[in-house]
Design brief:
By secondary structure, this protein is an alpha/beta fold. The chain is 42% helix and 16% strand. The chain has 15 helices and nine strands. Helix 5 links the parallel strand 2 and strand 3. The longest helix has 17 residues. Bound molecules: S-adenosylmethionine. The site of S-adenosylmethionine (SAM) has 23 residues, from strand 1, helix 5 and strand 3.
């Protein structure tokens, strides 16, 4: 059996084994005085360009970790641990937590704040440059995994895309700007509906778990946040014969969202079809020729893409 390296570790091992352990006061990583003291000790300064806004309300990381599926899956990849408030909550629930942190200056901070956990590992690097599927295989073998993060705002879209495309996670629970969360979950015909809503909803079930006001962070960001949970689907939400064409039509429609769908599709279809033929195509999909692309559901785009693909292949 593994020997505990110190008293703290012994207490943690006993706790995991189901023993009730009365501890002294545990470090509260959301307490502003603790944050100042720890960061001050390490000479750390917040970097705006790295999207460093740390949580100061301890109920938030607890709720995120609880709702992330970390306990059930056992393995977690976290993006951007910062000084570790969410990381610690994940470590209390999962078997193994691997956190990817870009900022080297946070490594000594994490060594101090995560000292009580033997199921935590940090990988220094840019999450966008990593092969996340390979990382999961290396760290967790065939084990189930979830992803969890309070994402740095400047990489929200590429980070969500990379986490989804890795195919490695049962759930992806991320805190993002509230407006982005609403955009991702938006319904057709709303102003928030976008090409990215369709991309995410095609591959995953998307739900907003709860909102987090800007006051819950230091430094305080300009906008509110929301926690978003994505559960990748076994099969895409709609069936389409030509996925590439489906997304080409979606992108074209939203590139010119103020125009009618018929006009917006010109750049993708005009080389193979006249405007009249595009009108007929839109009508054959059961849509009004004057409709705008922002009103179409995923199923509408799938139907349109299938009809277009048929026509392009014939022609
Ligand atoms: N998890 C902490 C919390 O909730 O208080 C910190 C979250 S803070 C919004 C984002 C974190 O992501 C920072 O620690 C930042 O250094 C890190 N980060 C920024 N860009 C990154 C990247 N490309 N890859 C990995 N981590 C990154």
């Amino acid at each position: 059996a593994r020997q505990p390296k110190d008293f703290e570790e012994l207490l943690t091992m006993l706790q995991r084994g189901g023993w009730e352990v009365k501890r002294g006061k545990r470090m509260n990583l959301c307490d502003i005085e603790t944050i100042r003291a720890v960061l001050g000790r390490h000479g750390f300064h917040f970097s705006k360009s790295l999207g460093q806004n740390f949580l100061t309300d301890e109920s938030v990381p607890r709720r995120i970790a609880e709702m992330s599926g970390a306990r059930e899956a056992g393995n977690v990849v976290e993006v951007g641990p910062g000084m570790g408030c969410l990381t610690a909550e994940l470590c209390r629930r999962a078997e193994h937590v691997v956190s990817v942190e870009l900022d080297r200056a946070l490594l000594p901070v994490l060594a101090e704040t995560m000292a009580e956990f033997d199921n935590f590992e940090v990988v220094q690097g840019d999450v966008l440059a990593l092969d996340l599927a390979a990382l999961c295989r290396e760290k967790f073998g065939e084990g189930r995994a979830v992803a969890c993060a309070n994402l740095p705002y400047y990489i929200t879209t590429p980070a969500i895309t990379a986490l989804m495309e890795s195919g490695a996670f049962e759930h992806i629970t991320v805190m993002v700007q509230k407006e982005v969360a609403e955009r991702i979950c938006a319904a057709p015909g709303t102003s928030a509906y976008s090409a990215f809503s369709i991309y995410v909803q095609y591959h995953a079930k998307a739900e907003i778990l709860f909102d987090v006001p800007a006051d819950c962070f230091v430094p305080r960001p300009k906008v509110d946040s929301a926690v978003l949970k994505l559960t990748p689907l076994a099969q895409p939400a709609v069936e389409t014969r030509d996925e590439k064409l489906f997304f080409a039509l979606v992108r074209a429609a939203f590139n010119m969202r103020r125009k009618t769908l018929v006009n917006a599709l010109g750049p993708v279809l005009a080389s193979a079809m006249s405007k009249e033929e595009i009108v007929s195509l839109v009508e054959a999909a059961g849509l009004d020729a004057r409709i705008r692309g922002e009103r179409l559901s995923l199923a509408d785009y799938a139907k349109l893409a299938d009809l277009a693909s048929e026509k392009l292949n014939k022609g």
